Amino acid sequence: MPKVLISDSMSNVAQKIFEKNNITVDVKTGLSEEEIIKIIPEYDGMVVRSATKVTKNIIEAAKNLKVIGRAGAGVDNIDVPMAKEKNMIVMNTPGGNANATAEHAFALIMSVLRRVPFANETTHKGQWEKKNIKGTELSKKTLGIIGFGNVGVRLSNLVKGFDMKILVNSKSLESRKKDYPHVENVSFEDLISKSDIISFHCKAPKDGKPMISKEHYKKMKPTSYIINAARGNIVDEKDLNEALNEGLIAGAAVDVFSKEPAKENILFNNPKVIATPHIAASTTEASIVVAEMVANQISDFLLKGIKLNTV
Ligand code: MLT
Fold first, then answer.
1. How many Cα atoms are found within 13 Å in the side-chain-facing hemisphere of 104?
2. What is the pTM assigned to this prediction?
3. Which of 89, 160, 165, 283 is the most buried (most CB within 10 A)?
């Protein structure tokens, strides 16, 4: 009977699916790398979210591991090249949390444009900042979406009805353009100079270099906003902070950081920044869907050799 380790907290739906499929499952969360190395040789499959870093050392120790499943989209916490070298399959659950992430990106957009966190905090303190808070509307503005996968597409659909122009920067969009007549695919340079709100929904660049840095902010509208609910290292945080302080752009809302958990960050306490702790995908609905997807995919692979959503 195959044996699977769930090493990050997730919906217990995953555990139930494994049990129903007669797969032995252990849920052991919060383990250190050393602790995982000790137990991993027992397992055929491993399920993670983002907390467990599946390192080279873990993969080398995992003598029986055939599959690593990520309940979520990003696999940057897994050493994928190393896993492939050891003939392990790595799977994710694309689309499983796309709506949750797009909705959070939209919440960030509305919050930063209408200064909701500041309004909330000051009102609770009994300060009446009515005269000092003036928002910006979405209507007639241009939304620039960088990356047009599941999340980018969903965000573009969510803002239909807000009377916005939508620009997209995506290599893969060209071949499927006819499915998305409501967006226009443009170059990165065009997108950043023409958009009022720029929202990142792409993977982090493989070379680790930020996609947007100081030279780009100089080309943007001083009234524009940056939204990042993708990965922290897409944006150079020091440059973003400077751009905000120098008035090159108006504000930013970020859910992801170059180093997580972010206990400190250069953007913290900048009044033009709204920050949330990588919760874009954290909804009741999405956590069930990704747990279901990953458990079904791993079961199908271990029991029938079916490979779905491999990366
Ligand atoms: C993902 O990659 O699926 C999201 O960033 C959510 C997460 O990592 O928890």
1. 25
2. 0.95
3. 89
